[in-house]
Amino acid sequence: MNLLLYGAPGSGKGTQANMLRTHFGIPHIATGDMLRAEIQAGTALGRQAQPILAAGQYVSDEIMIGIVRHRLGKADCAPGFIMDGFPRTVPQAEALDDLMHELGKRFDRVIYLKVPVEELLHRLSGRLVCPTCQRTYPPQTTACAADGSALVQREDDKPEAVRPRIEIYLDKTVPVLDHYRHERLVSEIDGRGTIDEISSQVLAAVNGKHSSPLMGKSPAAGRAQGALPEKPGDGAKTKTA
Ligand code: AP5
Ligand code: MG
After folding, report:
1. Shortest CA distance to 58 belongs to which of 160, 167, 153, 159?
2. Quick one: which of 33, 47, 56, 219 could link to 165 by a disulfide (CB 3.0–4.6 Å)?
3. φ, ψ for residue 175 (rounded to 5)?
């Protein structure tokens, strides 16, 4: 099972990836987590990446493609993986196509978590993360449920970095979705509602039962008008493509 989680900063990719990792027993490959681990370890890559992440900008395609190539070559990815945070640009998507082809793999589904900008800003301003295992938590959580570490705010969740992150997502990452829509791999899910409600919809989509989240149980279902502006003609309707 090879899955790709796609969505804006704060849309819930990491949260849903944790659920999928437990459910399917396959690794979660999160390029942001990998970069933050390099920063924490003080490696040359980490020193190079730190100011880029702090400013809400993207690390170069060349570096990111190299990181993902190395990671997907590891044995634990053989039964499948959950990709989160990559590809973020069209060149990254093209490189990933080549890499998947080389490895004899294909994506089973691309899950797009669609969340309005005001909700993204609200979530990111209050998000807490575990510095040890990188799990994310809502505001007011005190310690990591997995390892007990005291939670911290991510450097790029400070107000000055959040807007640039959303702007670069709209500019460079929104076009990536078309790449996968052409392959009819995308399940678009209204990312509002409780975490458990979204998880049910994600699992249904992965298991091929997902038709339209507007017909799902989320209390937010049907209120997609405030969702992120995208390309002309890409309305707020949610669908499987
Ligand atoms: P990355 O770590 O990938 O960050 P991101 O894409 O900005 O996404 P986030 O991790 O902020 O959000 P998420 O969707 O995982 O949401 P979460 O589940 O935490 O990348 C960081 C940086 O690294 C980039 O900006 C870039 O600089 C660099 N980088 C990484 N990959 C790169 C690449 N390929 N190319 C170039 N540069 C790259 O949820 C957010 C909050 O909401 C949490 O508090 C959570 O508890 C809460 N929440 C989740 N679901 C719900 C819900 N349904 N209802 C209410 N609250 C919820
Ligand atoms: Mg994340």
Report:
1. 167
2. 56
3. -60, -20
Predicted confidence (pLDDT) per residue in 16-72, tens digit? 999 999 999 999 999 999 999 999 999 999 999 999 999 999 999 999 999 999 999
**H or E, element range at 51:** helix 44-54
User: 180 C-alpha to center of ligand 2: Å?
Assistant: 20
- Radius of gyration of the CA atoms of the chain, in A: 17
Q: What is the CATH number of the domain that holds 121?
A: 3.40.50.300
Per-residue pLDDT tens over the stretch 90-124? 999 999 999 999 999 999 999 999 999 999 999 99
Residue 233 falls within a domain, yes or no? no
Count of the separate structural domains present in the chain: 1
From the candidates 13, 109, 135, 192, which is the catalytic residue? 13
Q: What is the pTM of this model?
A: 0.88
Query: Quick check: is 127 catalytic?
Result: yes
Mutate to test the pocket of ligand 1, among 59, 155, 162, 218 (most ligand atoms within 8 A of CB): 59
Q: What is the pLDDT of residues 178-237, one digit of tens each?
A: 999 999 999 999 999 999 999 999 999 999 865 443 333 333 333 332 344 443 333 333
Neighbours of 186 (CB within 10 A): 23
**Cα 38 from Cα 50, distance rounded (Å):** 9
Q: Which residue's CA lies nearest to atom 30 of ligand 1?
A: 32
